[in-house]
Amino acid sequence: MADLVTARRAEPADIDTTSTLADLAAAAVRTERGGRWHLDHDSDRSPATERHHAALQTSDRTLVVGCIDETVVGYALAALSGTVDGTLCMIEELVVHPDAQAVGVGSAILQEVRRWAIEHGCLALESQVLPGNREAKNFFERVGMKTRKMRVSTDLG
To answer: Which domains does the chain have, with CATH numbers?
Structure first.
């Protein structure tokens, strides 16, 4: 029998697992091209437990977990963001444990984030991918997202 892949809004009891996944992902990202810059400049540097608890306590953020047979193996943290054209949903973090990738967990999480974004009147979903992270880029393209802009930078110090 195949494993059951599901996604749902996170509960307070899920925070230990999502925080552990966030810490594992941050350690891996730090070694990727652009990863150190992203973690030091683009990311909310508060501890994952604080970010994830905050998402459960406000209506403009969501924390969604992906499960295999009810075991949390991934998550997404998303936030509403106002623009000139309307509201968009920014996927700030999307992490699936390496041993649980390529079985539909990320797609299930994204589907639940999409539902939440539509409920909140969002016009679009956005996320960021580090340069060279072809697996993440390919995942987002497989689920219907497109690259719309690239951001370039250089260190001055």
So the answer is: 5-142 (3.40.630.30)
